[in-house]
Design goal:
CATH class of the largest domain: Mainly Beta
Low-confidence stretches: none
Largest sheet: 6 strands, antiparallel
Strand content: over 45%
CATH topology of the largest domain: Tachylectin-2, Chain A
CATH architecture of the largest domain: 5 Propeller
Distance between the termini: 27 Å
Number of helices: 1
Radius of gyration: 22 Å
Mean pLDDT: 95
Helix content: under 10%
Number of strands: 36
Bound molecules: beta-D-fructofuranose
Structural class: mainly beta
Shape: globular
Length: about 475
């Protein structure tokens, strides 16, 4: 019998996102099992239904027709076997085989991590396989039993593969396994090795093979800050290159590059759609943060980013919002094409949920204030190739542990171009920026009530084209 959880406290909707996935109540972290199955998008997530803090992990589950409206389907995996009942069902992925949906995930029994499988015929009921599919005896060489997690399955030339994060002596590795039936797995090689003095591994690895280049994705625990880069305690990166799944080699053609320059982006996971597009979604939060919806007792904490389409073009990663998202922003209610100097307040027609498109010459400089009210605003500042985001005065304070510098200011250097083009998605408690279709910044913000204005100004004067699209609620589920 499935255990039912109910909310302990009333839910406060002030910061509940309108077009991002969050749990009905409780805590969420990593996206898991992102897949397209029987004509619907499925997204599972690391879930603690018992409170707004991390706890023993379940898999929450939601499905969607349009990547905007998510229907909650309750809990797919409970920590209810001897293989997962210590810390729960950790991250993993999903893939369809012969009409069934398979979930591969990490079980955490006492002091170990092993890989488990569950199968569903209807994306409603999930049956766990009785034994681990990769147990302690089949761990990658040189790995320890405490850190071996987050299997991401993919299919290539009719064979299933899984990349899994693990330790490697005193360092870390991404281990590649293969299987013909998703049940019997054999180790191929470490597809990536790394050193660490901090005991952290490469979490949530992913490998995407495309005709224009392959993408190795992983989240590095305990990254060292490097100028404006790696400002978060843990950072999600990608390397472009050429993978050979047969021998487990990956020859990089770029250095590891941060996926997103914001303060809230971790553990991204991809899925490849039947039409060939690659979608990626990440947890829009960061470890070691005091999250306002948790300390204000709003009944939930954590949400996902917008799903993005990613692709490789000329050895560069292209990232844009999934095209489905745009139908929720159907009409432009305000536009301007002018030289802006003094502060201009835009007529915002939807409090707290909208998309702003902006373009300006690359060498210009201007600032936007979003979620602006009497007592708060969030600043996005652009100055000749540098974009910065400042949420120090954005509303309820967000503090972080000393491990990660200032959790409120982030900077990004934009690759040289003729223009700067920004696409800014604002939801009740987040602002995601896509710059020139490739570089992104995702951040949460918790503005005080009635802080809904947007303003723009430029000390030097800047030629700005701007369009404003309010979010329009639809329900397609
Ligand atoms: C990453 C992570 C994963 C793990 C999960 C536990 O955020 O630490 O490595 O499976 O979260 O919730």
């Amino acid at each position: 019998m499935k255990k039912q959880y109910s909310r302990k406290k009333p839910l406060n909707g002030t910061y509940r996102p309108l077009f991002h996935l969050t749990a009905p109540f409780g805590w969420i972290n990593d996206p898991n099992g992102f897949s397209y199955y029987r004509d619907k998008y499925h997204l599972f997530y690391q879930y603690n239904p018992k409170g707004e803090k991390w706890g023993v992990m379940h898999w929450g589950h939601a499905e969607s027709m349009d990547l905007v409206n998510w229907k909650d389907l309750g809990i797919a995996l409970y920590p209810d076997t001897k293989y997962d009942n210590f810390l729960g069902c950790f991250s993993g992925s999903a893939i369809e085989k012969d009409g069934s949906l398979y979930l591969m995930y990490t079980g955490v029994p006492f002091l170990s991590q092993i890989q488990l499988l569950a199968v569903s015929e209807d994306a409603r009921n999930f049956k766990k396989c009785p034994k681990p599919v990769i147990g302690s005896s089949n761990r990658p060489p040189h790995s320890g039993k405490f850190a071996f997690r987050d299997p991401k399955i993919f299919k290539h030339n009719d064979t299933f593969y899984s990349v899994i994060g693990a330790s490697y002596n005193k360092g870390r590795q991404i281990a590649l396994y293969k299987s013909e039936d998703l049940k019997a797995w054999s180790f191929i090689a470490p597809i990536k090795l790394g050193t660490t003095k901090t005991n952290g591994i490469f979490e949530c690895p992913d490998l995407v093979i495309t005709d224009s280049g392959d993408i190795l994705i992983y989240s590095i625990m305990n990254t060292k800050t490097d100028g404006i880069r790696y400002q978060n305690v843990h950072s999600s990166v990608y390397e472009l290159g050429k993978a050979n799944p047969l021998n487990g080699s990956f020859t990089p053609s770029t250095e590891p590059l941060e996926f997103d320059a914001g303060a809230d982006f971790y553990a991204p996971q991809t899925t490849t759609l039947p039409d060939g597009r690659i979608l990626l979604i990440a947890w829009m939060q960061m470890w070691f943060r005091k999250i306002p919806t948790a300390y204000l007792s709003h009944g939930f904490a954590g949400m996902m980013t917008l799903p993005r389409e990613i692709a490789v073009s000329d050895n560069k990663l292209v990232q844009k919002p999934a095209k489905e998202i745009f139908s929720s922003f159907p009409s432009c209610t305000f536009s301007l094409s002018d030289t802006i100097k003094d502060e201009l307040i835009l007529p915002v027609t939807h409090p707290g949920a909208h998309m702003t498109k902006l373009s300006s010459p690359f060498d210009s400089s201007f600032s936007l204030h979003i979620h602006k009210g009497d007592a708060c605003y969030t600043e996005i500042k652009y100055n000749n190739g540098f974009l910065s985001f400042n949420r120090e005065l954005s509303g309820h304070p967000i503090s972080g542990s000393k491990l990660c510098g200032n959790p409120n200011i982030r900077h990004m250097k934009i690759s040289q171009s003729n223009t700067i083009e920004l696409l800014i998605f604002t939801d009740k408690s987040s602002i995601e920026i896509f710059a020139n279709n490739g570089q992104t910044m995702s951040n949460t913000v918790y503005p005080f009530p009635d802080s809904n204005d947007i303003s723009i100004f430029s000390e030097e004067g800047a030629k700005i084209n701007l369009e404003f699209y309010p979010f329009v609620e639809t329900s397609s589920n």
